[in-house]
Structure formats: C-alpha cells, structure tokens
Design goal:
alpha+beta; 7-stranded antiparallel beta sheet; Immunity protein 50
Length: about 250
Amino acid sequence: MHLKTDELVRLEIEFDSGIIPPPYSHVFKLKIGFGKNFLDTSLDLKYTDREDLTEDEIFDEGFSLNDDYQFQGEIPNVWERPLKELYASSKWSNNKLDEEGGVKLLAKDKQGKISRTIPLNQQEWQFFAQDYIQAIYEITKKEAPLTLHYIIREKEQEFSISLTIKFSLRRVDLSVNGKNKTVDWENTKSLLSYVFLPDYDYSKAKEQSPKHQGHFIDCGDGYWHEIGKGVINIDDSFDAVSKIKEGFRKLI
C-alpha cells in the first residue's frame, strides 16, 4: 500500500544480501526521517556468517575483521526529492523475500499510518541505498569523493578529463583540460555503471600517465589502464568498453 508521498515522515530501507557467501554477505537498515532542512538518518550495517572463515580468508577478499558500520546524523536534503520520487513510482510485491534477499521498506506518514512493503523494482532501491550509504561515508570522511581520470590522445587532439562524484551533494564536478563545470548527476551515474563492468588487467596497468595515443582511464586508485587492451569486456553480449569511450567523449 502506498502512503501519500507528501505526507511521509519516515522511510526505512532494510536490505539482506541473501545467499551471497561471506565475507561479502551483509545486512543493513537505513532509517530516514523527513520534516527538517536535512534528512535525519541512521545506518546500521553488519557483515554476516563470518564465523567459519579464517582471518586470512577475510583479508584476502579486501575486508577487515570489523567492517560493521553505524551512523547517526544529518544528510543534505538534496536526497529527499529523489527518494520520495522513487517511493511514489514504485510498485509493490505481495510476496516475501526469498533466499536471494533484497530490499523491504517501512513507510510512516503524518497520521501515524505505517506501510510495510517489498518493492518490485529491487535493483533501483538497492542502487539508491548504495549511493545513500556512499553519501554517509563521504560526510563522515570514511571515504573521499570518487574521482576518475580519463585521457583521450589522438593525432591532432588531446583531452584530459577528471570527474569527481560527490555523493553527499548528488553533484558531479567535471574538468576538461583545466576548464571546470558541473554536469548532470543521472547521466554521470549511467557512465559510472559502465566503468565498473569490464575486467581491469592490473598486470598491464601503469602508475605513470601514458604518453602514447589511445584512451586511458584511472579509476581513482592511481593506476592507468588502456581502453581496449587493459580494459576488457566480460560479457560478449554487451560492449561496456565502447560505452565508456562514448560516455567520456560526450563530456568534452
């Protein structure tokens, strides 16, 4: 059941990763309150089922022994409109979550009515929650804003592109050959989804900025990868590499 979007006072997003094995398996709950000039937010994130793993098995996957995370604080209200729009456009399932896990919601309105639902558009809610958690990490300085660097070097032209994605503000800052501007959030998020689809061969990556012709990307870790040589499509049915090249060209 939908509550009226303009009467919402609180949304809770609860996620379970389902059958994903440890150390990746986790659950989280986001509680988001409206009605102020910020979103009153709490996050409780816990990693699960690690009891039978050794410390080395956890470390080898890039985790630590304490990856759980809690937050209570204020998130800029630039997030309120897209959250309410997502709620208003969602349709609901009558089924319970299965072993695959997913998102379930609790909504409360000004009259005290409470609605517990499972959205059919699971992927949209999961992506939104991930972005919102990334905003929390930025605000608490757990993580810095993500910055991508991209070079297009061809016979008669060269472009040096930097993209800084500020989740806390839902803002993307673009620099092309030193000229700065702000670009569309949603279009940039689409480009980001392509950037992290291919396989990156770190045996071919360079720490120094490349000097020869081609397209090159640094995903924020200081390693330069050549598009088409060190960045390879995983799925033959979808050409993410071409989407990356096309997306960065459109930014020029």
